[in-house]
Specification:
The chain has one domain. The longest helix has 28 residues. With about 150 residues, it is mainly alpha-helical. Helix 1 packs parallel to helix 5. It starts with a helix and ends in a 12-residue tail after the last helix. The protein has 7 helices and no strands.
Length: about 150
Amino acid sequence: MSYGPIGGLIVISLGAFVSSFIIFFAVRKFGRSFIYSFVSKEKIDKIENSKWFKNPKKIYTILFILFFIPASPKDLLVYISGLLPIKPMKFFVISAIARFPSIISSTIAGSNLIDGNWVVVILTYLITFGIAALILYLFNKKEIFNETIDTTNK
């Protein structure tokens, strides 16, 4: 609210990217012991062993969907992603694209919520979710993120 919708979008996006970058590569360097400092071993094991992350052809799509869902634990997803057999650049692109609708809608809605513009708030969320759904549909149709991943440790 202090920065307005555009300033808020920039500040939040940069903060999310920088923190994701640091966490992702810290997990890659220090492994599970680094994660256990922040999240319980049981929670990490449960997520990592879920059927969602067992199919290497679908990891990118699943990450996109999970990052897109409002109120999903995006920080936890970054920690888990550092353990997955995925390419860092693709992870950062997915994270940025999937977070964008949530960030833009939150900054615009937050700015209008203070002013009591409920119609704008509701329309913002509807339009944002519609655009994000279209993007997800196009990505899945073109199978941009569904390519096979090499799961060997090289």
